[in-house]
């Protein structure tokens, strides 16, 4: 009969949820081994714990001496998931920019001991930059969801916290005055004019805009259409976008070279998303538009569609957003002023109203004049 393997130093305990867990203990040294005694994962953690106890060495995510059950261990495991592998490289880079600083600071901490109060404290350090805090909260939510899938924890402590309130998403939405001012500075035929026209009439993000070209245009019975898949999601249930080409956009791109992207450099090479962002900064500064950016054009596209009466689902079909919440975030603020005007017109139109619109305007003009004289 095969002798059953034993694991010296391994002992069981009940966590705060009553779940039976195992850990390796030697003196003051302790490492988590999980819940499945004798499993392949258990053995891997046990051997890593024994090795770490002997050598006293710790390492980062994915290294041989990663502490089992730690944040380092969790991040390394998450980087091996299909969810992570299916992300495009730019998204991975963005996510790592949030995950890695967190891992470097908290990597040796045990996941099972992370509670809501700990996550709140970590996020609280970024309270002065609420957008950054919310980005970290999203990534922690994904990491701890993975920990639940691994049966390391029962509840996601990040999901028990609230997002920080911020004014918009940190990117200014171009208004019509700014758009007109930009086109006054940058005339038709310039790359500055082409780039903004392309993004304004497609809602494409920088990472997609730099790849659009004649290969993206498909002839149909109803006229040419622009077709592409949003890069952020093209490897994971990507959102295909197929939109008719607006006449103002067609006028700008119809004579562009057929052998390169629309936004190619002067040398005919494609731009990177970061490169386009840098040029947009230069072009906007030249037009005196310090608040404007490429991302704000995507929001301006959604705003224009909303003001034209497009439904959230219609806007999603143009911009490639995946959820209604994303579209509503872009459009609600832009529509509020128009809804207020509409509501006031209805109030003014009611029977037996106290003042006509003309009287109201005259009253405001008189009082404004008197107020200015008193200054």
From TrEMBL:
One of its GO terms (biological process) is DNA integration. One of its GO terms (molecular function) is DNA binding. Residues 159-344 form the Tyr recombinase domain. Keywords: DNA integration, DNA recombination, DNA-binding. Belongs to the 'phage' integrase family. The keyword Transferase does not apply. This is Site-specific recombinase XerD. It comes from the Bacteria.
